[in-house]
Amino acid sequence: MLECGVAKIVFSSTAAVYGEPEEWPITEDMPTAPTNVYGRTKLTIEQMLADFSRAYQLSYVSLRYFNAAGALAGGGIGEDHSPESHLIPLVLQTALGLREAVKIFGTDYPTADGTCVRDYIHVSDLADAHVKALQHLKNGGPSKVYNLGSESGHSVRQIISRAKAITGINFPVHEAERRAGDPAVLVASSARIREELGWRPSGSDLDTIIGSAWVWHKNHPGGYQR
Q1: Of these residues, 38, 65, 120, 224, which one is catalytic?
Q2: 211 located within any domain
């Protein structure tokens, strides 16, 4: 970037930089203590950006995504990973009969129903935040770190229950042991980006997220290859 004269960057970071927070909603000023490699790599790059900002006047906005989900309205663009690891696509693929069952990893967390709680944000709201971050930098704004979340937490069991209601399909669910490095609760405070950049998520309620994703997965049962 320095060699090519690129002095501004919007970086895709993650809520995983916080590790296992002691309280929530999580603010950007809370300690960062990632519990998995993914979170550690993102935090390392955030630290590099801060160093380059001081040393070379590189301006950045680091966006700490919580759980990005959903699909473009109309079903033209959706979520397709290989291998798939995100909960909502796994649940919907199971509803379509593409998987034998969806697994719940851990049912003994200190949450209301024993399963992990996450903050889900619609990808369209995520995209809007990127535009606002770019405008902030183009207008000479300082380097910043922002959380991107809906400020609402939903458990794994709640996601599965809502998906069954939206799809009308009672698909199989299996319980499994916890996975190492999975925090019990990750719920954002997005107050800073709301106040400073005027960002307002408009499609990050659970029914819109799952409903839009369901349309896409029904029309693309094999992902983008079909």
Answers
A1: 38
A2: yes
38 as an active site residue: the answer is: yes
Our count of domains for the chain comes to 1
According to DSSP, the β-strands at 185-186 and 117-118 are parallel
pTM across the whole model: 0.92
What phi and psi values does residue 162 have, to the nearest 5 degrees?
A: -70, -40
Q: What is the mean pLDDT of residues 154-179?
A: 97
Rounded (10°) angle between helices 156-167 and 87-95: 40
Residue 226 has pLDDT above 60, yes or no: no
4 falls within a domain: no
At 16, the amino acid letter reads A
